[in-house]
Amino acid sequence: MLIGKVTKGLAVAAALSAAGWTDALAQEGTLKFGLCFDLSKSYTFVSPQVAQAAQDLAALTNIKGGIEGHKVEIVVQDHGNEPQRGIECYERLKRDGVFVFDMLSTPVSIAVLPRIMKDKNILMQSSVGRGDAVDGSVFTQIFPVGATYWGQAANDIAYIKQQRSGDLKGAKIGFIYLDYPFGQEPIGVLKTLAEREGFELKLYPVPLPGSDQTSAWTQVRRDRPDFMISWLLAGGHVVAAKEMKRNGYQIEKYISVNWLNEVDIANIGPDVAKGIKRGTNVVGGQDVPIIKEIMAELYAKGKGSGPEKNLKDVYYNLGLANYSVAFQAARNAVKQAGWPVTAASMKVGYESLKDFDANGLLAPVTVTAQDHGGGGKTRIEMWDGQKWVPQTGWLADYQDLIWQIVKTSSSGFKAE
Amino acid sequence: MDIAYVSELAVNGALTGLLYSLFALGLVLIYKSSSVPNLAQGALTMLAAYVVLALSRQLGFPLWLAIAVTTIIMFLAGFGVEKVTLRRMAGRPIVMILMMTLGLDIFIRGSTLAVWGGTSRSMELGVSYDPLFLGPLLLSRINLAGACVAIALFVAFLLFFRTRRGIRLRAISDDYVASWSIGISVEHGVALSWGMASVVAVASAVIWGEIQGVDQSLSQLLLKGLTVAVLGGLDSIVGAILAGIVLGVIENVGSSYLDLVVGGGSRDLIVAAVLIFTVMLRPHGLFGRHDIERV
Question: What is the domain count for chain B?
Answer without folding.
Answer: 1
